[in-house]
């Protein structure tokens, strides 16, 4: 009986088995188009790339209904003749690729964009070849081709795409609202504008506000798109690694750590002029800022990587947004090192955003709770004069000798009180206790001279061109933290486990941890492979104290799998150091002597990254004299 049932099932399966058939050309085109044309923004990307590859110096984009009804791209590039137009709409026809797939120097190269668009929309191309007396036009309406015919056009090419997915309703219903599609198109357009600042680019349409970016240099274009506030609060990046064909150059702007956002939408990467969204680059930026930003905050940056085409694979996905580097460690090291060096060289520099907000807060009618006028001015209270604390109750760290200088009312004099536990060496001592004038103070020290303390925490300092308000606790916290980091750099002590912890893991995770063992050992974590599916942990970082070894190793293996780095252990150690610095720094609510306030300012000027605390907040804000005078209508 059972055998009979099995035979019946097999017979039914054979009868229902479909024979292999060849798909129709229309269906083949629609399947291919699904990979290239995800949404209207994908069409814009492909058409703008074609215009740039054609040598255009001016590109105009017009859209309607989020690009679903109309996308028109006009350029002044080299143009095409009737023979080129006929080939351009055929799959796998391109003028940009030789037989060497590793030598890609153009944005497009697959020869799939135009035929893919023509298979799911109405595509009309009008073009005039440079030097030709006539223009020609060709039309493809959902795979139906109308041969080239004469047309009127002064120069370049006009590509018009309408009714996207009109004959593929299954795809059309997955489109988002007009506003969402318009936003996606704008993002693509801005990325292309960032990549090619020498091209005049404009965008308009009934579904959007018009945008126009005149041809300019790279920094100006970045300011046009990301805002001049970003340019003012960004660090110049220009670094090179490798030689010959392996030479990689990184340029662009990276925001100060205090100029951060709640998401990573304002992070732009370009490889050989191609906008990319690469996980390895995101991981490198995350590692570069890990010491300055808390989790959940993201830097703003615009970085350009120039690399030999044979050292990077752009043929990973039809959208060409993903890339693979032959030496990803070299590129990662370049990104991390260049950003960290730029932040270090910025010294105590902080974001100017705080000064702007402070100026707004002083305007008449400002309410700090609602941000709207209330009729009452916002004024500080509990103002403290520049006098020592009467009870003389100062923390021990603040009672050590400084480098031998402090301020009198109009300059410096000898003193024996301050912050020397964490003061960097190299401060220039003043000879024989000689006092110097304010003018000399302001020219030599950018953070100026302390004048008062507000609310038992905030130091008001006068500079040559304005005033500065310093969060004393946050500033000293960074000073202590940098000193602890310096100690960590000389070697992190480890504690030996009485019994090695054996942790079972998938073999691929074990192999990743084994490859990272040397780096982890420098952080105080000693581990070794214990068979094909286990790791033996023998020592852990002493700073972590009693630690859940299994969770630590699991987190490390996840980090290595996702990002290819073991930053999570470094993050934990730095978190402990930051906590120690927070508890070891001067507390809010304590009055400071004038020499202590000035000693703190001098240390900030010589301490790396003193412009932000360990939590990514600014340690001081600056208000220029012109801004102060503007508040009083002068």
Share of helix, binned: 25-40%
Examine the secondary-structure arrangement and name the CATH architecture of the largest domain: 2-Layer Sandwich
How much of the sequence lies in strands comes to 15-25%
Radius of gyration: 32 Å
Main beta-sheet annotation: 8 strands, mixed
Shape: globular
CATH class of the largest domain: Alpha Beta
List the uncertain runs: 365-434
User: How many strands appear in the DSSP assignment?
Assistant: 27
Q: Average the pLDDT over all residues and give the rounded result.
A: 77
Q: What oligomeric arrangement do these chains adopt?
A: single chain
* Assigned CATH superfamily of the largest domain: Histidine kinase-like ATPase, C-terminal domain
Distance between the termini: 104 Å
**Spatial strand order of the main sheet:** 5-4-3-6-2-1-7-8
Counted by DSSP, the helix tally is: 20
Q: What is CATH's topology name of the largest domain? A: Heat Shock Protein 90
Overall structural domain count = 4
Return the structural class. alpha+beta
Quick recap of the structure?
This protein is α+β, with helices and mostly antiparallel strands and 634 residues long. 35% of the residues lie in helices and 23% in strands. The chain has 4 domains: 181 residues, Heat Shock Protein 90 (2-Layer Sandwich); 129 residues, Ribosomal Protein S5, domain 2; 173 residues, MutL, C-terminal domain, dimerisation subdomain (formyl-coa transferase, domain 3), CATH 3.30.1540.20; 93 residues, Ribosomal Protein S8, Chain: A, domain 1.
